[in-house]
Amino acid sequence: MQEDLVELLDRLKVAQRELIVAAARAKMLPSDGVLRKIADLEQAIVATETLVEEERAA
Questions:
Q1: What is the pLDDT of residues 38-50, one digit of tens each?
Q2: What's the predicted TM-score (pTM) here?
Q3: CA-CA distances (angstroms) from residue 19 to 10, 12, 35?
């Protein structure tokens, strides 16, 4: 299970990074949708990191 969570965490971080880099390259303020997606991914990253830590502690 922990391995699956770590793989998910990696995918989430890559997706978020790609959105942030694309927004930076656009040289303009990202749309509300992009900002919302970045924030949603951040929440998913934090939740997944918490589960990874719980699995390690168990």
A1: 999 999 999 999 9
A2: 0.91
A3: 14, 11, 9
